Each structure stands twice: as C-alpha cells, then as structure tokens.
Protein: DUF1203 domain-containing protein
Amino acid sequence: MTTIRFTAMPTEDAMQIWTGGTDAYGLMPERFVSDGDGNPCRHCLEPIADGEPALLFAYRPFPAAQAYAETGPIFLHAEPCPRYAAEECLPPILNSPDYIVRGYDQANRIVYGSGAVTPTDDVMDRASDILKRPEMAYVHVRSSRNNCYHCRIDRAA
Structure:
C-alpha cells in the first residue's frame, strides 16, 4: 500500500480569507453562525460546532484557473484555527457514508477513469491504489452528493 497523507487547505489560503480577502470569484465570504450540521472547516478538517461563527465562500483548490480547476463552496471557521496535522488519519470531517475519490496529474487535470464514489471506510485504500500509478500527482476527496471539495491526499514523503 502506498503511504498517503491527508492535506488540508493551505494556511496561506485560509489566511487570505481570514484577513479580509475575497474568494475565487472576487466576492467577500458570507459570515454566518453554524447550526452544527454539515459545516466542515477545510483548514482544521473538523466540523464547525453549533453556535460558532463560520465563513462560506467559493474555493478553487488548484494553482490556476483552467478547464479542470473546479471551484465550489466551502466552509471555514470565522476565526483562525490550527491546520489539520494528523495527516496519516482519516480527517474528522469525513463522516458521510461515501465520497468521490479522484486522481489528478501534474498538470492539475482529472485523470479519466480514476474517480469513483467510495465508501468512507475504503477512502484510504482507494487513494493509495490511485497514487500507485505514476501519472497521478494527487487525489481529491469530494462530497458524493454535492461534489464539494473536502481535502487533498498526497503520497507521504
């Protein structure tokens, strides 16, 4: 099995939002109070608790705009939180029954045939299998119902 690590949203991306920056569409994030249901923070990879302030904004987890650079809504704690550090473990936000697990190449393009709806208990094995292929650079974990980006999976160094 290829050793993998779960990679949260880069702190630089989160800081850009926390310090008043705009999202992938040039819009200000929407501030709201979490109801504790379905608001996973993409920086600490923990659920945003009921009553906590949160941000909703468009995020593009790719280095540049291009045809395969999907942009979509994500949540972030409204105040800075520590970045997810237990990279070898399934993150706490991955608590749905299944996810889309899909591979990308060095050009940040989807590798056709690599994506599949995957039971949560199988995400680590599926990502490891995808990353055994030399053309794969990384994997995304996305919602199987809404296609929202959750986190990235890379080969462990």
About this structure: The two ends are 14 Å apart (CA to CA).
